[in-house]
Amino acid sequence: MVRIILASVLIIVSLVMVGLSIWLDFSDIYYWVSALIAVLAVVVYFSPSMKAFAIRRYRRGSQFKQYSLLYRRIAKKIKLSSNIYDTAWYLVASEENINETFAQFNRVNLSNMPANIAVYHVQGALIWHVKASHKAERAHFLSWLNHVRPKQPINGVLLLNDAFSLIQRAQKLKQDHLADVKAQLESLYLLSGYKVPLHLFLCGVNKLDGIAETLHEQNDLGALSFFLDGNNHKVTDTLNQAYDDLFKRLFAHNLHQVSLQLDEGFKRKQLLGPMQLQYLKLSVTGFVDELLDFNGLTVPFKLESFHLVESETASQRVNLATAHALIEVNQTRLPVVQESNLKPKAQLTKTFAEHVLPTSHGAPANRWKMWQHGIKQATMFTSGAAVLLLASWIGWQAYTYNEALHTEFRAVHKSYKANLDNSTFNIDEPSTIVEPLILLRSAYVNFNQAQLSKPWYALDVLTSIERAEHYQALYKNQLSVAIEPSMKKYLEEELFVYLELEDYLKVINVKDVYLSFSNRENKAVVLQYMSTSLLESGVMDELQTEHFIALLNDFYELGYEPVVTNDELLAIVDSQLALQDTNQLMYKYVKQLPQFNRLIDIRPALLGDALKNTILFEIKGESSSFLVPALYTPEAMQKLSFVPESEFMQQMVNNNHGLFQTPPTQRELTRIGNYLKYSYINDYTRFWQKYYQRLALKQSLTLQQVMDALTSNEKSPLMQLYGTLRNYVVIPTVDVPEVVPSGSVAKQAPKGVAVKAAKAEKLVKLASTKLDKQKLLDIAQANEHNEISEKIRQSFSQYQLLAGEQEAMRNEYQAFLQQLIALKAWMTNADDDVIPGLTYFEQIQSNRNIDAFSGLWLKQYSERLMQSLAVLTVEKTTQHVREKVQGYLQTHWQSSVVKPYSDSIAPYYPFALQGEDLNLNSLASFFASDSSVSKFESEILSHFLLVDTQYQMAIFNRNAVISLKPEIVQFFTQFKKMRRQLYGQANELQAKVTIKPLSLSPQLNSFTLSSGDIELLYTHGPLIEVKGVWPKDFSTEQLTVTLVDLNNQKQMQSYEGVWGLLRLIDKHKVSVDKNTLMMPYQNEAGATLTINEVGNTQSLLNPLFYGQLTVPLRLVQPLR
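Structure tokens predicted for Type VI secretion system membrane subunit TssM (1120 residues):
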């Protein structure tokens, strides 16, 4: 724990030193000290681990030295080759209790040799046997092998197993041995990088009864070695096949030998030996399978061969046939037979030398380590050559560097002079002075950089210090000649221009820059202003401005005398600035900020996409009145903050250095912030109120467009408009951070200490507010944001849909929308009628049919645009319904009145003075009480009410009516009057006719008028009148008038049809208003007679009576 605390303290000290070095601009030595302290902290923290690592490395190194010394002693004793790879190295792995080893005369014996290591030398090969009990030392030994022979640590591994141990039932020792061998082989694989050849020796096969006798007569013992070629996948099959072949070979050979043997016991054992090997097969293959089992991982070795060898000492022998039988009955003690006195022939050393050692040259090697060795040799050679070349190069570079400095110095003078001669160097144009001066500056900067970072090979004895002084004096003098007058003239022009433009905030800032430059003060302010001004005015491009600012910075750094100012200009400036309100200037600055003075087109979000939806609204005013300044958006409100400590206010103070030449106090900033805040709120609300007032319905909208837009779209244009406007005028408030946790300790404290706890809690709050300035700033900004949001919302409180509650807004709009949907369904149903306009005509007769949407004209909506939509919808709907109803009425009028009159009445006499006579049945049908005209009057005209002087039918209300034409009223009045006159007497057409002669010309003898039952004959005598009834007594086909003169010459005139009497009256009536008719004879006076009532236009016998009936073509007055 102490170690962790100490490391933490050191790290904190290091970080503090780094922070102070950055803040106070300390020298680089502090950074190095901080780095050393941090390293020390790391060392302190990891010291136990580092200590343990060092100890392990030390012990490992000690072991490596011990093994290397041992090898050198062995190599010296048995005279091994100096090339370590000329000697084949093998590693022995065996069970702990195995006593089989190589012949003792092959063992290398040295004094002070480690007890756990045995080394054997067999025909030029070294065999290392590290005891299995010393696993840690064995791991060190394996690492040493990889260190001393990196290309090929060993040529193979010899695994020695005892045959007797293999058949025992104690499996734990065998499993431990297998695990140890596997770990050892895997370590070799990881260290060497290749699969190590493994040679498996099964020692002590002569411990099985009969093996020694079986091998005694064998001359070729090579069959006891099985070569598996390192193919681990087929090793079991290969081993089984080789084992079976060995059994067959030994058994066949022993059958031949038995016939030659006289000893019966020896014979039996000769035949028993192969059987013993066959019994051993299952244990051998099982052991090999377990050895190759790495749970799916790569096998880290190649099993090259398997060898059966005999033991030098086989004091006990076992019969496996008897052993297996005893195992079946769970007897653990195996019967032991008598020891054989035969000398072992298949010895371990001999088998190794004959069958394993010849394959040592085929052991794999680590090719990457071989490449590394070659690379190291090449690197040593090239390093020597590189050192020689480097020394030569250093000398040459030192010489050329100093020569280049002299050449550069001379070239600077020459280039600067040539540039002045070829350029138009004009103080009034700052851009012309940049190029020559930047040439000097580049040389000056390059020289200083060269002095500060000159190459390590440069020799100081060849450089001159006078060159640096000359560079600085020349550069400073030229800057004074060019920069000083150019800056003075430029800033004075800026003052004059902004003064003329009445941009007084710019004037204040330029004046501050002007005075700062004159007094060699506020370098950062002057540089910042000039870099911005030169670019904005277009005097210089970006590259020229960058160069000019660099020159001006150097002018400051090198120092100059104070510049004489233009006092007359400053006096004029001061007189104008004295009249200005700084608060207004600051607010003007806020509005002119680049992030706020850009204009935003919100029409897509406000009005919708014209390509996808019908635009219902438009923005009246100028062509650019739809644009919204970014200042009046919620995004701008997020960036604005009028809290004195806010970043915005501090940036405003920095940018307006002329107004704030001394840092303003908290009180001053608070006053300015309040003024800006309330000015912003007023302008914000004023702008959006005007913007909202400019919104109106789009001209030339159709009813279909309005209905589809409001009821069919996924999002209503009206709600989209109000939702968009709501985003700008109803700005969500933000959560105000809490100064201290909301839980009160005083409330939870006992009553006895509650007062003290409350005081302590108050002190904690006070301390927290003083310490956490950022939290206080967040609280102040959150409160300010909520205040602005609330005041803006209050200014729009009279607009329910804009600033009202969401639920109220939704309810009002849903009520409006439901009425529109009901109206649309009503119109759709009416428009689908077979007879156009009939449903409309029937529906408007009762208010119950239109109650579902009557609120559109009965209700006064609070929002202007919604009311405009309702008025437009009602207006367009009224117009549509009126057109449909008038169309229906006109069609009905044409079919019920105009067509019957035109077809059966108007073309005939007496309604037409020419043409055929009117059929009396047609006349009766037309004027009948159940005629189509009468039905039209009862079915249609009954719905029209007399209002003032017009008959009207209301559609939705009295403001929307359909008016009959005055001619229609006159027509039906005349129609009824004529019907009464025509059929007023028992519904029959009849008129009493009295014909009375008045006179007869002396030239005539008689006058005769005959028609049906009427016969009038008049001669010069008494005046006898004739009476009859028309048309009853005039039903013959014609009326005949005959005049006979004194010579008995006749003049006859005939008038066809039942209307012949009216034709006679129409042709011979003397006057319109008289009842007298005159029948001329040969164009002279003839007979004169009277017919009653023919001079009365209301008489059925007067043809003019029928001309009084005229049918208007149009029923209702046209739409206005």
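Residues 805-988+1104-1120 form one domain.
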